[in-house]
Design goal:
Length: 229
């Protein structure tokens, strides 16, 4: 669909709801009975869902979008690929001076939380403009339009998956402690700078926590540190 510059209202059995201005890329999920749609006000892109049953609009993501670099967003699809929520966004009228193949049409694969572009596809924009897209099970349908001419192109497409990066935890040997000593903070650190959580095994021999470990009985215990991610 073409971007909507004015207000868009959805009419349903409950009377309807105003989705607001600058709406683009509407999609419908029959199983959830929800609309998914984007908004772009010239500098910020956001993704929303509208629930027909409750008339509620939920905001899922919002971040700056550089139209000077990527052009004008025209359509989007919201996908979960290997546990990663992605936004596939079609754009048109991108600048000709891009460092890659000089095209005016782009499909951006964006992180749904941060807006970071993981990868992109670009198409020749000399004759057709990229207007919308839809993704399902590894297939991407792209909609082009120029005047009265229309084209749907279906391609294989694998959404971006952020590669795992090796992370190391430095955990020096702990000193011996006596039952009844005050809780202490193990001197462990992660090169990712993520916070560490400590765990004592067996579980009844120590206290688990984010900041300290306490002894609660005599004997040997194993203390582990871990980080999220």
């Amino acid at each position: 669909m073409r971007p909507v510059t004015g207000s868009l209202t959805v009419i349903n059995g409950n009377g309807g709801v105003d989705l607001g201005d600058h709406v683009f890329g509407i999609g419908y999920d029959a199983g959830l009975n929800k609309l998914g749609f984007g908004r772009f006000d010239g500098s910020t892109m956001s993704f929303h869902t509208y629930d027909f049953a409750t008339d509620q609009i939920d905001d899922h993501a919002g971040f700056p979008f550089d139209s000077a670099q990527y052009g004008t967003p025209t359509g989007l699809d919201y996908v979960n690929h290997n546990g990663n929520w992605r936004m596939l966004v079609s754009t048109k009228n991108g600048p000709k001076e891009m460092p890659w193949d000089p095209s005016q049409n782009f499909i951006l694969d964006m992180d749904a939380e941060t807006g970071e572009v993981g990868k992109f596809k670009n198409f020749d924009g000399n004759s057709l403009k990229l207007e919308d897209l839809s993704y399902n099970s590894g297939r991407l349908a792209s909609v082009y339009e120029e005047g009265s001419t229309g084209l749907v192109q279906v391609d294989d497409f694998t959404p971006f998956t952020r590669p795992k990066i090796e992370q190391n935890i430095l955990f020096p040997v702990l000193p011996s402690k006596t039952y009844g000593d005050a809780p202490f903070m193990p001197e462990a650190s992660a090169d990712s700078d993520l916070p560490l959580v400590f765990q004592c095994l067996p579980a009844l021999s120590g206290v688990e926590g984010e900041t300290s470990v306490a002894t609660v009985s005599n004997g040997w215990i194993t203390t582990r540190s871990r980080e999220a991610g």
